[in-house]
Write a structure and sequence with these properties.
The protein is mainly α. It is built from 10 helices and no strands.
Length: 179
């Protein structure tokens, strides 16, 4: 098939811009055809069917570069826009659930993030894993707080530490514990 100089220039420009290998393959195949290579040879070189090659040619002839460029996949990929995610990141970084009136807790959890996103953006994800991924994307790490006895008496704890330290001063070996 013969191409005009304008079409050949479009193909060269398209190949310079695209980083997608499928698009590059289509562009290179069409350039080979523009140099009067046989369809069967080009199909063999690019390891595609001749009918596929004909389809690329037909779409390029009708639609130009848009005919051979990849099209986006249909459907809603993101429930939250980038701007909304940035707002959420800013909010959970700067404020606690307590300050927002979501809970009496000071730290964020998956449950609280879900509640906040539902309240502010009317978006609910099906899986808790998605909320964990959001935390991870925002730079948060999941960890459980250390165990702490809330009923302990600090004066008695200090007395115990002093007592253990005194007893272990004359002890030989590795079985000594210090806090």
């Amino acid at each position: 098939m013969r191409y005009t100089m304008e079409q050949v220039t479009q193909l060269h420009d398209f190949l310079k811009e695209t980083k997608n290998t499928s698009e590059q393959q289509r562009g290179l195949a069409l350039l080979a055809l523009s140099k009067e290579k046989k369809r069967t040879e080009v199909a063999e070189i690019f390891e595609v069917n001749v009918a596929t090659l004909d389809g690329w040619q037909m779409r390029f002839k009708r639609l130009g570069i848009e005919g051979i460029a990849n099209k986006g996949y249909p459907g809603n990929h993101y429930k939250l826009a980038k701007k909304q995610k940035e707002e959420i990141k800013r909010t959970i970084t700067e404020k606690t659930p307590q300050e927002l009136g979501l809970s009496e807790k000071r730290f964020w959890s998956v449950k609280l993030l879900r509640q906040y996103i539902k309240q502010e953006y009317q978006v609910v994800y099906d899986s808790e894993a998605t909320y964990r991924k959001l935390f991870y994307a925002f730079g948060f790490l999941c960890h459980k707080p250390g165990k702490h006895n809330r009923n302990q008496r600090p004066a008695e704890v200090e007395r115990f530490r002093v007592k253990v330290k005194k007893r272990s001063e004359n002890t030989r070996g590795w079985a000594v514990w210090y806090w």
